[in-house]
Write a structure and sequence with these properties.
Largest sheet: 9 strands, mixed
Oligomer: single chain
Number of helices: 21
Strand order of the largest sheet: 4-3-7-2-8-1-9-10-11
Helix content: 40-55%
Shape: globular
Number of strands: 11
């Protein structure tokens, strides 16, 4: 793996060393031994990304669109009320886990429409006797998207059942003060979070604030990477053809409000239903859209006033009512309008239509952001999670040789430059930062907001000569050091400029010559 600007030398190796030392010192303590074993294993596992958000925010639909397969149930059954882990596996399997560690295979049923997959939790046969409740599900699936990322689908944070909402809170938020009973210590299970919003209300802000740490409490923070998604973006514009433009305006407003918390690196509008339907577009659906494209514009517009009206048998259209109903269920009115418009503009085959719909759904932009913010920084995010968990264990279980490790762990959490960059990325568009727009954009790029490769940080072509890159990096070091020392710079702006200078220095260190 290429070296990363901002990562302490061998941060994953150092985290492994510290966790190993703690495991040796606390080997006789059952509870910390189990927690530390998880710390060690997660460093070698794929990045864990949780999908969170309020009830009916579209988490399962977005998961299906990101994976490009129908693997997550989207109907409101019991399986959407428990945390479900989606991992890579050579063969499909679904396993239910009880709180005491018992397991049971879960039957998978397929139906029609958008509710094509259901996990049957009614007839579980546990591998140990006794009645049990389901703590979480694990799905293994041969999907390429899961090879390097484990996706965790969580219950809605605004569920009517407090226990259901708490399942998500326990996975993502600190939840328990270190002063409380040792056996109740909580370790966040995700390395990064994609938080889905249909609207931005006080409950969303409170939850995001709980995901992160209070200032100065870096050892108690939750996942370091958080990206917001304005989900079901097509519904914001009532399914109109310009719905995503409306959603982008909303996303910009949400971004401004969320980034004031310092907990969100970006906010992206996504029409998840359209993204998934495009990824699984069938030839007969393309043929139906092609037929609808031949209908006069006013006549088709009148039929698309609502999904119910579009599927009515008494509406004369060259597509059967049953097919129209399925199109409305799979693509939504926005997707139907978009598909028909694209065909009228010259799209002539299903593969091109699928690509165009995918591009317009926003999911490609989201994938790009997730790669930059999460994928390229996977080692940093995993190390942060492991060190966070280690700090909690060491704080809760004092009185052994492991106590001597805590200062080093806290120093890493506070000082590893990659962690500092990620925290700063969430606050660059706040009113607190006294920089002109051009400098703000440059600072965002220098600290890795557009990618962590040296040429991306420096805003240069990938084939730029090393001498050119070195000159640009040296100029950036000098510029941002000077900005940090400016007598009128407030503390936050000066700190941000020092961070940019350190990022430029790190880039310079990676360049040959």
């Amino acid at each position: 793996m290429n070296r990363e600007v901002g990562a302490a030398p061998g941060i994953v190796a150092e985290a492994h060393r510290l966790v190993g030392a703690a495991r040796a010192a606390l080997a006789t303590e059952a509870r910390p031994r189990a927690l530390l074993a998880d710390c060690a294993s997660r460093l070698d596992q794929p990045l864990r990304v949780a999908l969170a958000g309020s009830l009916k925010a579209g988490k399962s639909t977005l998961l299906n669109s990101l994976v490009g397969q129908d693997i997550a149930p989207t109907d409101a059954t019991e399986c959407t009320r428990v945390v479900t882990w989606y991992r890579y596996g050579s063969t499909p399997s679904v396993t239910a886990h009880a709180p005491d560690g018992a397991r049971a295979n879960v039957a998978v049923r397929r139906g029609g429409g958008t509710h094509g997959l259901t996990f049957d939790l009614d007839r579980l046969r546990w591998n140990a006797p006794a009645a049990r409740e389901v703590d979480h599900l694990e799905v293994e699936w041969p999907a390429a998207a899961l090879a390097h990322t484990t996706i965790i689908d969580t219950p809605g944070t605004s569920s009517l059942s407090r226990e259901v909402s708490q399942r998500t809170a326990r996975l993502l938020t600190p939840g328990v003060d270190v002063e409380q009973a040792e056996e109740n210590i909580a370790i966040p299970g995700a390395d990064a979070v994609v938080y889905l919003l249909r609207r931005l209300d006080a409950a969303d802000v409170r939850f995001l604030e709980r995901v992160g740490a209070a200032p100065g409490a870096s050892d108690l923070s939750g996942p370091l990477g958080v990206v917001g998604v304005v989900s079901r973006a097509d519904e914001i514009g009532a399914g109109r053809i310009d719905a995503l433009h409306s959603a982008r305006d909303v996303a910009t407003r949400f971004a401004g409000e969320l980034e004031r918390t310092g907990l969100c690196q970006a906010v992206i509008p996504v029409a998840g239903l359209l993204a998934y339907a495009a990824a699984t577009l069938r030839q007969q659906e393309y043929a139906a859209f092609e037929a609808l494209a031949g209908v006069p514009v006013d006549e088709l517009s009148a039929a698309l006033l609502s999904a119910d009206r579009f599927a009515r048998p008494d509406i004369a259209l060259p597509v059967a009512p049953e097919t129209r109903s399925q199109l409305a269920e799979r693509f939504g009115l926005f997707g139907i309008r978009m598909a028909v418009t694209l065909i009228r503009l010259g799209v002539r085959d299903s593969a091109t239509l699928a690509a165009e719909l995918t591009n317009r759904s926003g999911v490609d932009e989201l994938r790009s952001v997730l790669d930059v913010q999460f994928g390229q920084r996977a080692d940093q995010l995993k190390a942060h999670s492991a060190l966070t968990a280690l700090a909690r264990v060491l704080t809760a279980y004092r009185g052994s040789e492991a106590d001597a490790l805590l200062p080093r762990v806290r120093t890493l959490l506070a000082d590893v430059h990659g962690f500092v960059e990620l925290r700063l990325l969430g606050r660059l568009r706040t009113d607190e930062l006294a920089l002109p727009p051009a400098d703000l954009a440059e600072l965002h790029r220098i600290i890795g907001g557009s990618g962590i490769a040296p040429h991306l940080r420096l805003g240069l072509p990938v084939d730029a000569a090393p001498s050119v890159q070195r000159a640009e990096a040296l100029a950036a070091v000098r510029k941002w050091r000077a900005r940090a020392r400016h007598p009128l710079a407030d503390q936050f702006t000066a700190t941000a400029c020092r961070t940019a200078a350190r990022s430029a220095e790190g880039t310079l260190e990676l360049l040959p010559g």
